[in-house]
Write a structure and sequence with these properties.
This protein is mostly helical. It contains nine helices and no strands.
């Protein structure tokens, strides 16, 4: 592997970490701290306890990671356009697909099928504030960055496929895995039980599953529309720089 390939591989892995895993794990780790470590699983106090972990995470890991990701995007646009496409398209497609997810999610909020409004919960956890003007926009930003991170992980790990149907299928599969994780991990599982059995079964599970399927359809459609045929490599061949072959 030559020096340029090593550099591109390292940039790819840094982007995967900073743009994908860091924003996603803000929520899991913050609420995990509250629910498992501090024993708070319901009520307003869970947000305050999660804030104890979430604020330092945001200041010292989340924000620097976003700055690093933007730097990688700018640098790769001039030197590694194939990496740049994956990053920008994955990030944008994930953010747009979040709009579709929100359309479904809001039905659950309005009908009481969910224990709360996700962006509101995120915003209060990050800011520690009960002021609408402070927590609402931060919560919305965090929510959409989460969705963008899911899209970025998809384009880096899976790339593109040779048809809309296949790209959307694997995007739905990816989001179904995330749905499974959400149902068994913080904050949902300790709060409402596995798959929502302590809150409202099966409405909560079916609603969130459908929301993630909608997200996957939009994500897969946009990724296939915007990525090129030569972006068909999955993560390992992309890191190694092997020749392009059509995927299944």
């Amino acid at each position: 592997m030559n020096i340029l390939m090593k550099e591109k591989s390292l940039l790819t892995l840094f982007a995967l970490f900073t743009g994908g895993f860091v924003p996603i794990h803000l929520i899991v780790l913050s609420f995990g701290y509250s629910e498992y470590y501090m024993g708070e699983t319901m009520g307003p106090k869970i947000i305050k306890v999660a804030h104890e972990f979430g604020l330092p995470y945001t200041l010292y890991l989340y924000i620097p990671s976003m700055i690093i990701l933007v730097g990688i995007m700018i640098y790769s646009k001039f030197k590694y356009p194939d990496l740049s496409r994956r990053l920008i398209i994955g990030f944008a497609a994930g953010a747009i697909a979040t709009i579709g997810l929100d359309w479904v999610r809001q039905m659950g909020v309005l009908n009481g099928w969910l224990p709360g409004d996700t962006p509101v919960m995120f915003g209060k956890m990050i800011t520690g504030s009960s002021s609408f003007n402070e927590y609402f926009w931060i919560g919305q930003l965090s929510h959409f960055l989460n969705g963008a991170g899911f899209g970025l992980i998809f384009t880096i790990v899976f790339g593109n496929f040779n048809s809309y149907k296949k790209t959307m299928f694997f995007a739905i599969l990816w989001l179904s895995i995330l749905e499974l994780g959400m149902m068994v991990a913080p904050p949902m599982a300790p709060m409402v039980g596995f798959f929502g059995v302590k809150w409202l079964w099966p409405e909560l599970f079916l609603l969130t599953l459908f929301a993630h399927i909608v997200f996957g359809i939009i994500l897969g459609f946009l990724v296939h529309l915007w990525l090129k045929r030569e972006d068909s490599q999955c993560l390992l061949p992309f890191l190694k720089g092997t020749q392009i072959k059509d995927k299944i």
